Amino acid sequence: MGLFDFLTAKKQTASVAKDRLRIIVAHERSAGRGRGGPDYLPMLQRELLEVIRKYVNVDVEAVKVDLVKEGEHDVLDISVALPEPNVQA
């Protein structure tokens, strides 16, 4: 094995590692959808709840954040169940 063969072998190894990494990343992205969405959705839901609680007293279950597929686009669906207003007669 000559010096140049060693350098060529390293490039092939790097290429194989790069291809493997691409497969792993693609798999993780598709697995993320299967788990219910991207990793940031729970954090986004908590932060939205904190902001909404500054103005309205709501339960933890009152804020729902989902990622919905509509055609070619992913749409962030945010639902907030507000409490009924107190009516004083």
UniProtKB/TrEMBL annotation:
The keyword Cell division applies. Keywords: Cell cycle, Cell division. Pfam families: MinE (PF03776). Transmembrane segments: none annotated. HAMAP family: MinE. Prevents the cell division inhibition by proteins MinC and MinD at internal division sites while permitting inhibition at polar sites. This ensures cell division at the proper site by restricting the formation of a division septum at the midpoint of the long axis of the cell. This is Cell division topological specificity factor. It comes from Montanilutibacter psychrotolerans.
